[in-house]
Design brief:
This protein has 117 residues and is mainly β. The termini are far apart.
């Protein structure tokens, strides 16, 4: 089992910044991938960004150049630095953890990000 604890969501004005954190604990075996998905109001969950334990990253086109994902392997923690936020970034952001050997992953409880003036 893996437990994920997210933090860092909130309300921010357009153009502002937020930093999300997700700490994993439990059966953490490398290699793995961690990252963030989001679910805007009334829409399906979508990929935001992922990073492997080896440091390979992947971003949705809509966030490239504005969001940066990073990780601290010693702390089993992944971060999402979100800059130049737009109203369309408003969503519940979910952390995900998946070991390469597994076909399914673990989800965090979600954290609300609201971009509004």
């Amino acid at each position: 089992q893996v437990q994920l604890v997210e933090s860092g969501g909130g309300l921010v004005e357009p153009g502002g910044s937020l930093r999300l954190s997700c700490a994993a604990s439990g059966s953490i075996f490398r290699p793995y991938v961690m990252g963030w998905y989001r679910q805007p109001p009334g829409k399906q969950r979508e990929l935001v960004a992922t990073i492997t334990s080896g440091g390979n990253t992947n971003y949705a086109d809509s966030v490239k150049g504005r969001f940066t994902i990073s990780r601290d392997n010693a702390k089993n923690t992944v971060y999402l630095q979100m800059n130049s936020l737009k109203p369309e970034d408003t969503a519940v952001y979910y952390c995900i953890f998946r070991r390469f050997a597994d076909t399914t992953g673990y989800w965090g409880q979600g954290t609300q990000v609201t971009v509004s003036s």
